[in-house]
Structure prediction request, 664 residues.
Amino acid sequence: MQLFFISLLLLLLFVINSSRADNTTPFGYCPSSVCDNGLNISYPFWRLDNYNSASPQYCGYTGFGINCSQSNSILYISDYSFNVTKINYNNLSLTLVDIDAVDHKGCPRVHNNLTLNDDLPFEYSKLDLYLNFYYNCTVSLPGYADRLDCLTTSGKSSYFYVGDYEPDDLKWYGICEKKVVVPVMDGGLIRGSVGAAIGEGFVLDWQIAKECGKCEASEGRCGYDNSKNESLCFCNDGAISGMGGTNCRDCQNSGGQCGAQTLYASVSGRNRLGLKVAAAFIAAAGTAVVVCGLMCCLRSRKTNKTPKRPKREVHNVEAFQRQYGSLASTAYSYSDIKKMTNSFKEKLGEGGYGGVYKGYLDGHPVAVKIIKETKGNGEEFINEVASISRTSHVNIVTLLGFCLNRKEKALIYEFMPNGSLDKHIYNQDSNMGWEMLYKIALGIARGLEYLHRGCNSRILHFDIKPHNILLDEDFCPKISDFGLAKLSTRKESIMSTLEARGTIGYIAPEVFSRHFGGVSHKSDVYSYGMMVLEMVGGRKNYTAERSHNSEIYFPRWAYQRILLDEELNIRDTMTNEEEEIAKKMILVGLWCIQTDPLQRPAIGKVIEMLEGSLEVMQMPPKPFICSPSRSEGSTLERPTKPLLFSTLSSTLESTDSTIVQFEE
Prediction:
C-alpha cells in the first residue's frame, strides 16, 4: 500500500509540473501573492505595487488592486488609503483600517467621510456600527453624545455619538466646525477606547461584479482590458472571452477560440491536448485517493466507538464564537471569574438565571452575573452578549467581558454602587425625591430611544422593569439584562416572535396575544409606561390594597384623580412642583400603557412629553388596564394564567370618544 501511495504522489508531481510548463494561461499569469504582513492576495484582488510579484491589472476586478508597502497592504477607495488587515474569501469580506486615523489612537482625529459609490461592488457589513464625530463645538451637545476630553480646547469641545441616524434634537450645524462619520466593528467599542475601536477597523462586503457573474459561474476569472475599456473572461483552457454573453463553457465547446483577445498568446493545440491528458490523470488519481481514504475510514470506524452527537447548545456556542470572534479579547476563563470574585465571596443579588457577585477587574469593581442554566440552547446568554455588544450609551450598562465555556457562563458588567431601581422605589424609607425620579425616568427613555433608533440594528429589550434598571454613583440609570432582547432591522416595524417574553405585569398585551396588534418597539413603550407608573405609586401598582374585596389598582386610581382634577397626595407632603412632576409622569405612563399599540407614543415622543410643559399635555383615552395577577418578580416564558383586562369604572365613560394615534 505504501508503494502505491509513493507512486501516486510521484505521478501527481509529474502531472502538476507538466501543466505548469505552460504559464501562458491567465491562471498562470495571475498567481496568488503574499504581502510582507502576511496578507494573501488572490482573485478578485491583485497586486499593483512595483514588485517582482506584482500582477497585471487584468488579473482581477477593477479597483481591487492592493499595494504591498512595508507593513501595510493599501487599498484605495474614493481617493482615501486604507490598510487591509484581513480578507475572507469565503464570505466575501475584508477588514480595513483608516491609515490617517490610526496615527491618533489615543485621541481619535478622523478626517475622512468614506462614501461608497457604484463604481466598486463594496457595501458596509452588518457587523459595522457608525461613529459620528462632531469637532470643535462651541455649545454642549445633548447628553447622549459623549465628549472627547482629549480634543477639548478653550471654549470648544468635540463629541461622538454611536448610531446610523442623527437624532432630531442634535442640531450641530452652526455650532460645530465639522462632522465626520466613521464605521467601526460592533465589537470594538466594548474592548476599549474609541481610538482603539477605530484602530481595529471596519468590515466591507463585496459582491460579484454584475458583468462577471456568468464568467465566474462557468469557472472562469474576470479581468479588465484597459486599452479597450472592456471586461474579459479568462478561461482555464487559455481562451479569452469578451463579455458579450459568451462564457467559458461556450469557449470550450467552440475549441477555445471565442473570438480570442490577444492580451497574451492562447495555448497551442498540443499543449491543450497535454492539459486534457493531465486532467484525466489527476481525475483518476483523485478517484483512487478517495476510494483508499474511504476504505481506511471504514476500517477505523470498526475499531472506534461512534462519538456522541454534540448537543445543539454546543453548536450555538461555536456559531456564536465564529460570528462574534471580534469579542475574543474580552473572553475570560472560569478560573479568571473565580479569581475576580474571590471564589464568589460577596453576593450582590439573585435571579432566576443565577447569582450576581461583586468582583474586581484590573483593580476596578465589577458585577459578575453567573448563568446557572441556559434556556433555549443558550440563546438568552447569546442574546445578551450579542445585543449589548452593539451598544454604547450613557444609559445602557457596559459589558466588560464574559465567560463562555461548555458548562460555565458568566457576564462581567460595570459595578453599579446604588443597585437596582426597585430597591429604592419599593423602600418606604427611601429619600429619593421627585426630581430624582423624574431624571431617572428621562434617562431610561433616552436609553430606550437609543436601542430603538440609535443602533445599527434596532434592539427590542422586552423586559423593561425596575429590577433591570441599575443606578451608578450619581443615580444615572442604566438599562441592563438583555437576555430576552431581539434584534431587527430599523426598517422592520412589526417583529415576528413565536413566544411571549417578559415579566408579568409589564408585558404589552400584543406580546402574548396577537389580537391586540403586532409586536414592535411600542411593546417596550408599554413596559416603560408600567414602570413609570410604578415609580410614582411605589408598590401600589402591583401589590393591591383590598377593601371589601375590590381591588384598588394604581393606574386606574391615578387616571380618575387626574381626570377629576383632584390632588394626588401620594406622599404625606408634596410641593406644587412635585405635584406637577408626578402628574406629568402619570400622564406619560397612561399614554404608554394604551392597549392599542397605535395609540402609544414612540419613545422619542415620550421624551418630548417629559421635557415639555404639563399644560400642553393631552389627557389620554381610557385604556383597558391590565390587572396584575402575578407574584413579585415572576418572569414569563409562556403565560401560566391569562392576564385579566377590565374597563375603568362607569364614571370615566365620557372619555371614550377621544382616540389619538401617534405616527412612527
